[in-house]
Specification:
Helix content is 43%, strand content 21%. The radius of gyration is 16 Å and the shape is globular. The protein has 8 helices and 7 strands; from the N terminus they run E-H-H-H-E-E-H-H-E-H-E-H-E-H-E. The model has no long low-confidence stretch (mean pLDDT 95). A 7-stranded mixed sheet has the order 1-2-3-4-5-7-6, sandwiched between helices. The two termini are 26 Å apart. It is an alpha+beta fold and 210 residues long.
């Protein structure tokens, strides 16, 4: 198998590719919160190009195939998660200033995001939190996802973290990869409105000790 080469994310990399891959990690939850890609993509664009957000290029490892993204991993210290979550609201405000979303859109997004946030277990400060790992369907089968996950595990181990954590919806086929790579489910969560009313699957917190 050809070695998979990943490079650090850069602000000039295709932010729309990043948005599509991030969306693919949990379409049901992103549809519930944002109502689809039309409102999610501009927020991700601003978050990707800036610093300190949940989806910033500065915390990404990217596999490129020509000018397109063939895989992405975004992760950081668990102690950064909540500050980055708050900073992502600033990216949403920038998207509103650019006319991509309205104030009413952001109000609705914030309300649904608050309800959906209870799907995620608490993120401990001493773990590496893998926010997103995705490969486009056309690139699957090449070992890109496995290579990016192993890279994240190695980086987390070298960084002295006690574990790597991630959240994944229970219907995501990536659960099989995570299990095969040694991660186990340490929490299973549902929330009343997102799950019971809107059909978002149970969220799994998966972890691997380092």
């Amino acid at each position: 198998m050809t070695e998979i080469a990943a490079s650090p994310g850069r602000p000039d990399m295709p932010a729309d590719d990043a948005a599509a891959l991030i969306y693919a990690t949990g379409p049901a939850s992103y549809d519930y919160i944002f109502g689809g890609m039309a409102k999610l993509a501009p927020i991700i664009r601003h978050a990707w190009r800036g610093d300190g957000t949940l989806y910033s290029h500065e915390t990404a490892s990217v596999v490129m195939d020509g000018s397109a993204m063939a895989g992405i991993e975004i992760g950081y210290a668990g102690e950064e998660f909540y500050a980055r979550r708050d900073a992502t609201a600033g990216a949403a405000a920038e998207a509103m200033k650019a006319g991509a979303v309205s104030f009413e859109d952001l109000t609705a997004i914030a309300e649904k995001a608050d309800k959906a946030s209870y799907l995620n277990a608490w993120v401990p400060p001493d773990v590496y939190y893998l926010m997103a790992l995705a490969v486009p369907e056309s690139q699957r089968g090449r070992g890109i996802g496995k290579a990016l996950l192993q890279r994240a595990i190695d980086r987390a181990r070298a960084g002295g973290y006690r574990a790597l954590h991630l959240d994944v919806l229970s219907d995501n086929p990536a659960v099989g990869l995570y299990t095969a790579m040694g991660l186990t489910c340490v929490a299973e969560t549902i929330t009343p409105e997102p799950c019971r009313v809107h059909g978002i699957p149970m969220e799994m917190r998966m972890a691997i000790p380092l």
